[in-house]
């Protein structure tokens, strides 16, 4: 089960995905709302926090989640405050009931990761790719358009064209032809 704990929240935050199952985790913690209460509506315990990247809107609630559930945070760069353990590029990470491969995908931020499970047919795209051809901002510190395009291409080449679900850092998840949205993002990033 994958639930967006930020669904319907009317403050500036990222999406927060609870992945329940054998290893219940949250992907990103959002900011500016009580994500702990939202998580407790679904699960009693978490085993980890997994971070797509460390922009404030994705980690504003990180300390609260770590304290409430007694868990560590995993991300690409453990030198960043709040990140306890490294997830290396191409590492396998268990989220819920499935194994995901972590893909280092800089361009929006240097520590950005996407998570893809071929068996589940799921991609957690963070702020790299959004619905309808949108893609991550590159006007912030560490942003770089050419690098972002390389990262989008890497994900596009890695995922199965029959991808079932793409969960993004902002906006709605894509459950109808998500591969087409990834392809469109690759084209749009080159045109802007």
UniProtKB/TrEMBL annotation:
Cofactor(s) listed in the protein's UniProt record: Zn(2+)
Domain of life according to the entry: Archaea
UniProt-recorded Gene Ontology molecular function terms: hydrolase activity; metal ion binding
Stored Pfam families: Lactamase_B
Keyword terms of this UniProt record: Hydrolase, Metal-binding, Zinc
InterPro entries to which the protein is assigned, alphabetical: MBL_Glyoxalase_II, Metallo-B-lactamas, RibonucZ/Hydroxyglut_hydro
Gene3D superfamilies with a match to the protein in the record: Ribonuclease Z/Hydroxyacylglutathione hydrolase-like
Metallo-beta-lactamase domain segment(s): 13-170
PANTHER family cross-referenced by the UniProt entry: HYDROXYACYLGLUTATHIONE HYDROLASE GLOC
Name of this protein: Beta-lactamase
């Amino acid at each position: 089960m994958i639930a967006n704990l930020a669904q319907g929240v009317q403050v500036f935050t990222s999406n927060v995905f609870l992945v329940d199952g054998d290893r219940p985790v949250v992907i990103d913690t959002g900011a500016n709302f009580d994500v702990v209460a939202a998580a407790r509506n679904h699960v009693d315990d978490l085993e980890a926090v997994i971070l797509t990247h460390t922009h404030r809107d994705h980690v504003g609630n990180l300390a609260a989640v770590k304290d409430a559930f007694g868990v560590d945070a995993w991300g690409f760069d453990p030198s960043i405050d709040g990140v306890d353990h490294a997830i290396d590029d191409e590492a396998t990470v268990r989220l819920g009931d499935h194994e995901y491969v972590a893909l280092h995908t800089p361009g929006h931020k240097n520590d950005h990761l996407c998570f893809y499970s071929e068996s589940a047919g799921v991609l957690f795209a963070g702020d790299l790719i959004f619905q309808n051809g949108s893609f991550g901002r590159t006007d912030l510190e560490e942003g770089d358009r050419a690098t972002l395009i390389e990262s989008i291409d890497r994900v596009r080449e890695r995922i199965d064209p029959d991808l079932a679900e793409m969960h993004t850092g902002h906006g709605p998840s894509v459950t109808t032809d998500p591969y087409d949205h990834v392809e469109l993002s690759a084209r749009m990033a080159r045109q802007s």
